[in-house]
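queue> pop job 88
queue> type: inverse folding (structure -> sequence)
queue> payload:
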């Protein structure tokens, strides 16, 4: 009789976004002209000054263990960034540098959750949230966002979902997969509920620097002392600085929570990569002009892709306010046919698109929105134009 394996591990769903991205790369390796809207990864190279800082760190022999929570210079730089950009006072002792945003979230849930604790997750959600909650022994509780307010959740809907087991609510702004941004007023109402019903806010602000059209990013922890005490603010360098592979994330929290996260991290991974920490230090303290140019490029692409998708038949979309995603509602495509085959799900649409039209997209069943597809515009304008053209060709061939 074979030995049993962890039920927790067996219940984890592999990341569908990474799987689709890998399939697109494999098809390209075979010589196929695949356009991929799949990955949440900027197509820009990491800025040169950041790369040079990493090279210098290697030349200087900065290749040994560091403190588990990160080098003091980087934690001080994150502290300064929180003060300047987020209006938040986190000392270096309240900062934990991790191996990317996922690792930060894993640390957070590892500290907050006991078996059976509930975490409220707005729908649609980044597909990793419920998996990390379950891995830490928690129970995901889903609250659906409303289309009329950009698929965001309200303070009232959160309040209705709170139980005696509620430990935290995840707020992701700017949002993946919708591209929507919570306003200061919306966050203030959510903060009132968190204070009144006494739960934590896990504020995922990974896309904080990518907002467009006058939409401003607001950190919920900046809205008063009481919500500050109940919030763990999570961000990183992957998206804004084109540093996805460098794996540097960070959190700001109470001293107690930071100490506990640092303790967990010290056993699980020791420390974040020493060389990547030096690169991150340069990213936060060095020349920001390249970062500004990348944001301008994303804004231009957002405008173009939104104009194109809103002109397409059958699909609907709301204009993104941040991040680099646009969410398409394919409900009107379902129950129609393609080449005599009835279309019953967005997963099926994604399969048709990659196999017959060589376009990779993310179906959002694993994001809690089974009739929707996410497109990333973190790709070149040329690729966007070509890929949207192929999706248009598919929609034009839909049979009633």
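queue> result:
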């Amino acid at each position: 009789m074979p030995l049993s394996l962890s039920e927790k591990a067996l219940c984890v769903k592999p990341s569908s976004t990474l799987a689709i991205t890998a399939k697109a790369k494999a098809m390209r390796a075979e010589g196929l002209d695949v356009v991929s809207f799949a990955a949440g990864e900027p197509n820009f190279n990491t800025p040169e000054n950041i790369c040079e800082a990493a090279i210098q760190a290697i030349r200087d022999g900065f290749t040994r263990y560091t403190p588990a929570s990160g080098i003091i210079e980087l934690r001080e730089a994150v502290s300064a960034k929180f003060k300047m950009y987020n209006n938040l006072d986190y000392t270096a002792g309240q900062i934990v540098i991790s191996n990317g945003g996922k690792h930060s979230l894993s640390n957070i849930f590892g500290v907050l959750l006991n078996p059976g604790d509930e975490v409220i997750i707005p729908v649609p959600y980044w597909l990793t949230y419920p998996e990390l909650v379950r891995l830490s022994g928690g129970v995901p509780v889903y609250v659906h966002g409303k289309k009329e307010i950009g698929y965001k959740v309200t303070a009232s809907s959160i309040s209705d979902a709170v139980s005696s087991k509620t430990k935290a609510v995840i707020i992701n702004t700017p949002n993946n997969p919708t591209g929507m941004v919570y306003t200061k007023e919306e966050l203030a109402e959510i903060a009132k509920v968190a204070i009144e019903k006494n739960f934590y806010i896990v504020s995922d602000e990974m896309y904080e620097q990518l907002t467009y059209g006058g939409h401003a990013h607001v950190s919920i922890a900046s809205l008063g002392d009481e919500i500050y005490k109940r919030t763990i603010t999570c961000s990183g360098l992957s998206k804004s600085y084109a540093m996805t592979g460098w794996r540097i994330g960070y959190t700001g929290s109470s001293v107690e929570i930071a100490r506990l996260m640092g303790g967990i991290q010290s056993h699980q991974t020791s420390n974040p990569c020493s060389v990547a920490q030096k690169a991150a230090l340069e990213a936060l303290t060095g020349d920001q002009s390249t970062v500004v140019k990348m944001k301008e490029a994303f804004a231009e692409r957002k405008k173009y892709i939104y104009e194109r998708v809103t002109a397409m038949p059958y699909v609907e979309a709301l204009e993104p306010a941040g991040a680099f995603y646009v969410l398409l509602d394919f409900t009107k495509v379902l129950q129609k046919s393609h080449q005599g085959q009835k279309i019953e799900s967005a997963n099926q649409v994604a399969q048709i698109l990659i196999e017959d039209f060589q376009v990779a997209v993310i179906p959002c069943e694993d994001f809690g929105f089974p009739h929707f597809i996410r497109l990333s515009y973190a790709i070149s304008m040329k690729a966007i134009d070509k890929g949207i053209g192929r999706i248009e060709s598919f929609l034009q061939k839909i049979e009633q």
